[in-house]
């Protein structure tokens, strides 16, 4: 599938307790079928916990699905802070390993229900706080159909939902039927192109029917760069960094302007060298992230406090142990010079 430009490189499945009555929840089969990211509902408000969350994530982890996540359904009340507390507490109790999983992100489920028209501000506030509390990337699941431009100005990645005819097909076939990379889910709203498109709720993944299927237009390395909690390159191996650099910077993909030097290495890209270099807009969120990196000034080293260094050296020189160590280290040099001196004197006799 990766060689076919009409379909994305990365597909994912988001599930909940409701999926457990529909099939075997065989995550190993899903992984063999090509699923590369998986999320499961954990909590809602401060009163609902999905009991199969922990088992689902263990199965996904053991199946080797590389990118994992958990989601919380935000409600208008109680407070956002209490909902974040509730969510993280449940994650820690059911999946204590999640904080050390390199490619883990947090899905903020923002929807307007007949019984609760949750405002966009609640989802935005939840995403802000959960990122602040964890250092992990939060993605806001909020459809264009429900929220339109209500999230304009958000700093978070968006996850659109648009089922259309909602075909009952294998997930990759359904994506093509829905229009693939030019399908109706890939449309700008709230000033952003969505990172994910949930394009069906009745697809077949592995041996599981009635699945929510999702697409990311890009490579696994690009998705990892986006969701890595420690920054866009933290989760990449050296080879993946090189691959990412070639994908982003090769002249057959982009033309760099504004700096004759341009970018010559992945380190230039990571540390914001080659000032003035810009990347033409592309449909991938990675491009936006790279432009942000390149717009930052180079990191400046802290000024050297020579007086403090001198004081530390002088203090060390009063320590008998330090003096003894210096004498021991110098002994071979001194002995060698003394031997040379004695030999020179003997030659003069």
Structure overview:
This protein has helices spanning 27-32, 53-63, 80-94, 120-134, 144-147, 171-177, 220-227, 238-249, 266-271, 285-295, 306-316, 320-348; strands at 10-15, 35-44, 48-49, 67-73, 104-109, 112-113, 116-117, 138-141, 157-161, 196-205, 208-216. With 349 residues, it is an alpha/beta fold. An eight-stranded mixed barrel has the order 1-2-4-5-8-9-10-11, surrounded by five helices. A two-stranded antiparallel sheet has the order 6-7. Strand 4, helix 3 and strand 5 (104-109) form a beta-alpha-beta unit. Helix 3 (80-94) crosses helix 4 (120-134). The longest helix has 29 residues, at 320-348. The chain starts with 9 loop residues before the first strand and ends with a helix.
Summarize the SSE layout with pairings.
Elements: E1 10-15, H1 27-32, E2 35-44, E3 48-49, H2 53-63, E4 67-73, H3 80-94, E5 104-109, E6 112-113, E7 116-117, H4 120-134, E8 138-141, H5 144-147, E9 157-161, H6 171-177, E10 196-205, E11 208-216, H7 220-227, H8 238-249, H9 266-271, H10 285-295, H11 306-316, H12 320-348
Parallel strand pairs: 1-2, 2-4, 4-5, 5-8, 8-9, 9-10
Antiparallel strand pairs: 1-11, 2-3, 6-7, 10-11
